[in-house]
Structures are given as structure tokens and as C-alpha cells.
Amino acid sequence: MVPTHGSQMIYAIALIVLHGCDPAWAALFAPIRPVLGRYEICVVADPIEAVAEPGWTIERLDALDAFGAAGSYDRSKLAQLYGGTRPLVAHGWQQLGNQFTSTTLISPYPDVTFSRLEGGTLVIRWILQRASTDSSADAGLSPARAVREAVAAR
To answer: Rounded to 10 degrees, what is the CA torsion of 106, 96, 39, 37?
Structure first.
């Protein structure tokens, strides 16, 4: 995965702010009480190709693999809604100072009632705020190391 930066990240953040992050999405697709970090789940009208950072791989996955097992959503209803369609998925991460963010993009995505698939992109962000503010310690920090350090600090 490639760290994100630059104008495309600013564009993606602006899109998220303009469209808002609805807690209904987090209730469906995020753990109820994450052990570490917090989740933000937003929708944007743009296609995944416009939201993904340069260098991110966009691939087709089975719907259940794309959404994972963390949330309380109805897995059989999700599988039925997608049928044979496999959503496009992209993953990336970013380290800025003491904040680590892992992002998953999914398109198309279900509406909150699971009655239809929506165009645009679902943006799932897991955000971990680290205790250290030493920016020199963040250089080259891998996602696995960021998580290990956060667990150790608890």
C-alpha cells in the first residue's frame, strides 16, 4: 500500500466533508466498540477511481470479503443484494504526525436499508491516534507497527 498525500487526498477529504459521514453506516459496517481507534464511514457520489489515491490497487472482491466481518450488518441480505456482482475495492493508509488512518473504498455500495446498490463510493476509515507526537519516530512507520505500538501503549 502507498501512503496518501497531496492534492488528491485534499480532494477526497473535501468530498467527505461535503457529503458528511452518517453514523448509520458505522452502525452497520464497523465494530460496536472498537478496541483501538475509531471508525468514520462516509459516502461520496464520485466513482472509486476518482476517490482512490494514485498507486492504490482497485480490485473486484466478493461482497462479504469487501465488507468484512466487523459490523452488525445482515451478511445474507448483503450477499443477496449483490448477487453475482463483485464490488470494486481499494485499500490504502496514511500516517500524518501521530494519526494513522487506514482507508477502504467500496463501489457500488448498499443503501442503509439494503434494498438497492448505490453508485458512488463508500469510504470506510479506521483512525488511530497515537500517544507519541514525535514526528521523527513516524518516518517509515508500517501499519502493523502503528497498531503494535498503540496496543503496547494501552
So the answer is: 140
